[in-house]
Amino acid sequence: MGKKLASTFGNMLVVLFGVTLLASASVAYVYTLTKEPINQARLNKQAAAIREVIPGTFDNDPMADKWSKESEGGRVLEFYPAKKNGETVGTAVKTYTQKGFSGEIWLMVGFLPDGKVTGYTVLEHKETPGLGSKMDVWFVKGGKGDITGRIPAENPLKVKQDQGEVDAITAATISSRAFLDAVNRAAAALQGDATSYDSTSGATTSENTESN
Length: 212
What we know:
The chain has 212 residues and is an alpha+beta fold.
């Protein structure tokens, strides 16, 4: 039978250090083991989102042709051009808003070369289930707040409560405004400079813009 370790402060520190070291090593091992699968799952989800929001067929790899722009607050918008025979047939934009009822919302929004919205998919959100979470389907083609076919770069999207033309999600106006803010940001960035987007008015500002 082994000798029992004396219950001294020094011995307790040694045992505690050993347990902490073992736990840290285990966490590091699990992280290394799961890092690649998690990253691959994220890339697969992103690729599926691009295919979902860009209509028709394309013969390039939009993820390989990705480019990006810095937006307000240091956030980065990502652009995935879809091409057919070398010509751009649409662009998927990974965009965001910080105006959600429960925090940030990230979307993938598709645009035709003329700026028309072709579709979207919600990548991340923490909105209230049954209310703001309805953005998953509310603004799709044929939905109550259908935004497809609109050109936000020319006419920023607003809910009807703000004298706009888009029906807000019932009992979730804040989430609806946030959703449209993300779409407007993507359209403005695709058209011009992402850093010039005014999230208050939903417009793209410029030194050449006349003030009323």
